[in-house]
Design goal:
By secondary structure, this protein is mainly α. The protein has helices at 3-22, 32-56, 61-86, 91-117. Helix content is 82%, strand content 0%.
Amino acid sequence: MSNLTGFLVTMGLMVAVILGVSQSFSTLPSFFYQSLVLLTASTIGLYFYLLRVRKDRPDFFVHFYLASIAIKLLAYGAYLALIIWEDRPGALENVVFFIAVYAVFTALEVGFLWRQISR
């Protein structure tokens, strides 16, 4: 199995686990599905992009990766500000869910990128 296929399968399994575990809760954060889609799409998109950068311009890979982290943090910060603005009573649940999933997806992304780079 290629690194890319392994990453996509692992991301799919992780989303399935998150959706499965969420069925055991009586209520979900109000931005549950929006946050899950945003994090999944951005993580997969960024992974594809970084693989292409590594292949086409390997000397700039670290620069692009660090820039992508900064851009993600700014974009996600704006998204979290919107969540807090729109649903102040449910802000804590939404932000905790978002940060937890962000941490898991980022760990997967870094792990798979590390495996790809260290070859």
